[in-house]
Amino acid sequence: xxxxxxxxxxxxxxxxxxxxxxxxxxxxxxxxxxxxxxxxxxxxxxxxxxxxxxxxxxxxxxxxxxxxxxxxxxxxxxxxxxxxxxxxxxxxxxxxxxxxxxxxxxxxxxxxxxxxxxxxxxxxxxxxxxxxxxxxxxxxxxxxxxxxxxxxxxxxxxxxxxxxxxxxxxxxxxxxxxxxxxxxxxxxxxxxxxxxxxxxxxxxxxxxxxxxxxxxxxxxxxxxxxxxxxxxxxxxxxxxxxxxxxxxxxxxxxxxxxxxxxxxxxxxxxxxxxxxxxxxxxxxxxxxxxxxxxxxxxxxxxxxxxxxxxxxxxxxxxxxxxxxxxxxxxxxxxxxxxxxx
Amino acid sequence: xxxxxxxxxxxxxxxxxxxxxxxxxxxxxxxxxxxxxxxxxxxxxxxxxxxxxxxxxxxxxxxxxxxxxxxxxxxxxxxxxxxxxxxxxxxxxxxxxxxxxxxxxxxxxxxxxxxxxxxxxxxxxxxxxxxxxxxxxxxxxxxxxxxxxxxxxxxxxxxxxxxxxxxxxxxxxxxxxxxxxxxxxxxxxxxxxxxxxxxxxxxxxxxxxxxxxxxxxxxxxxxxxxxxxxxxxxxxxxxxxxxxxxxxxxxxxxxxxxxxxxxxxxxxxxxxxxxxxxxxxxxxxxxxxxxxxxxxxxxxxxxxxxxxxxxxxxxxxxxxxxxxxxxxxxxxxxxxxxxxxxxxxxxxxxxxxxxxxxxxxxxxxxxxxxxxxxxxxxxxxxxxxxxxxxxxxxxxxx
Lengths: 341, 398
Ligand SMILES: Cc1ncc(C[n+]2csc(CCOP(=O)(O)OP(=O)(O)O)c2C)c(N)n1
Ligand code: SF4
Ligand code: SF4
Ligand code: SF4
Prior knowledge:
The complex is a heterodimer.
Chain A: H1 39-51, E1 55-60, H2 63-66, E2 69-70, E3 73-74, E4 80-83, H3 88-104, E5 114-120, H4 121-127, H5 129-135, E6 143-149, H6 190-197, E7 203-208, H7 212-225, E8 228-234, H8 238-241, H9 248-257, E9 264-267, E10 270-273, H10 275-281, H11 291-294, H12 305-321, H13 331-335
Parallel strand pairs in A: 1-4, 1-5, 5-6, 6-8, 7-8
Antiparallel strand pairs in A: 2-3, 7-9, 9-10
Chain B: E1 3-11, H1 16-32, E2 36-41, E3 53-61, H2 64-71, E4 79-84, E5 108-118, H3 122-128, E6 136-142, H4 158-169, H5 176-187, H6 190-202, E7 204-208, E8 241-245, E9 252-257, E10 271-275, H7 285-289, E11 295-297, E12 303-305, H8 315-319, E13 326-330, H9 340-346, H10 348-359, H11 374-385
Parallel strand pairs in B: 1-4, 4-5, 5-6
Antiparallel strand pairs in B: 1-3, 2-3, 6-7, 8-9, 10-13, 11-12
């Protein structure tokens, strides 16, 4: 009888040292029917490029399922399976458990196979959150859950989600004359919440595909560290955010430079800011005004200067008072004035 | 006794509101004349994606019975008028959902009309539109194709100008008077009425004889039938791709990803990247940031945008650090999807001249919303150019 294995073997995935070291092979290729300039499609491509060919991808319903696998046509090179809108956590956990069982029974050779379950913000931050939370407590299984956040239920034509930013125009929050700002809630902090709330989860990170190599290296770390892990990616969406598709890359950069989307990772409970966010936190570069980000998007076209000021004040507050937005108090209060590293 | 049908082919999301305004406007105008009608979008085209072709229909009948009879069809098999809201759609239409590639004039009935909003000439459009066995008419409304997005509508009067042209081409469907009355009711704007009338007067028409147009067979491919699918309705993955040979040196290297055989991006583009390989510093950014895995990495380390995969988003131009190394050019300027890199390898001098010529190409295109206030500015510029454009007065001029 095959020897019982405690867990499936982990791959060795060293970080890519620069863009020239990124492999040429594609495991998510053309043929998808996403919008022109869809950043989420880029996230899929970079995510699986970072993971490599020995990978199984599980996709929760949403644009990245529907537009990528329509009418018998797929853009995946690696095995891919559709899973229900709220089930990325269960699908990731179940697939990792199945692989372990097959390896234990000797039906599969004992070798590293990456399991990645992805979900949109609707599927991940709203209805799928409980399954993700449950999955992150099962430390004996190795898998990654990647939340690609286009800030709406994009596939069903842009409904508001728990991650839609304040004031944005969606089909559920059209600006009107009586009420210009219909959506008044501030975006949830999913990565921070999951990092703080799951002490046995070894890796949680935020990423943005405009910083492609850094993003891929976060995926590689998540897949090789062991146990269940979580990555939250902010994805500009030309359809829902209403902008010229050629701006996708720039808007990702602006979200980070304006401090709206802080880049950080929590590895073995140690918080690290990285990339531009680290530079801003250490005072090496300045945060850009959120106006630069907002005026390029039709979903904020109804904003007055007061609305922009309010948005800026909320982002300032986040930077002045919080390290992990909404979760851990700001550095000065716990590190005696040292900025976080 | 008559039923008329009109299809409006448009760029998904960018022209969603525009297409809806036109089909609704046709029906409202017909109602003014005591007819009955319905406007609807093609079911399979929802959810729409930016830039991917989609269709709306307007069906108008003399009475309810006739309308019901035509509505019993899933969608019209033949239309009196095809409206193409973007001239590059003349190269063919493949929608978001599965319909395969269709020539733009496939549903246009013999003797019917294809109406295009364009700054191009008849000859340019006929080079793109597929030849037919039956005669039809090509009609032009002058103007830059109007693009906006999901929330902000660029009201440059394209909707009413198309309505004015429709009343000229199909007077049996709606009269200009009915169109004017519908515009007054719906938009309450005399400027829009004036724009419709101007388009009515200025629409240009040409009879197209059988066999005139692009004579190449539209590309085609077959989906597997349901009974051919494997157990569990599994679909074979795409194969990874491979290194490939340099046509001049024979050296093998680089990487060309395999591409989905069932969905090519030819019909989703309004622009495409033109690459000056001599300016390229091989920084990899275009390759790295392209969401559609378009770039073949060539054996000599260049990045060749593969036109099977490119949807024309323009991200590569936006990220390329070298000026004029990647330039997005109006898709109407191209007649094939061949490799630019192979052309450059074959004859650098000729390629240099080709790039120079292409990047001069006009009219320039834009993909919609880039900055608050942009549409207001553009509409004023279009009015100033006044090629049947909206009669918008300077705000300060009252
Ligand atoms: C349980 C369930 N409810 C509703 C739907 C319909 N539906 C399909 S895709 C989708 C939107 C998903 O949004 P999100 O998770 O944010 O992904 P996105 O479309 O933005 O990529 C919805 C509501 C569904 N498939 N399953
Ligand atoms: S709606 Fe947004 S996420 Fe969906 S395909 Fe389009 S750009 Fe991508
Ligand atoms: S325009 Fe450029 S970035 Fe966009 S799909 Fe084409 S090659 Fe890729
Ligand atoms: S982005 Fe421009 S310079 Fe860089 S590799 Fe591509 S074409 Fe060359």
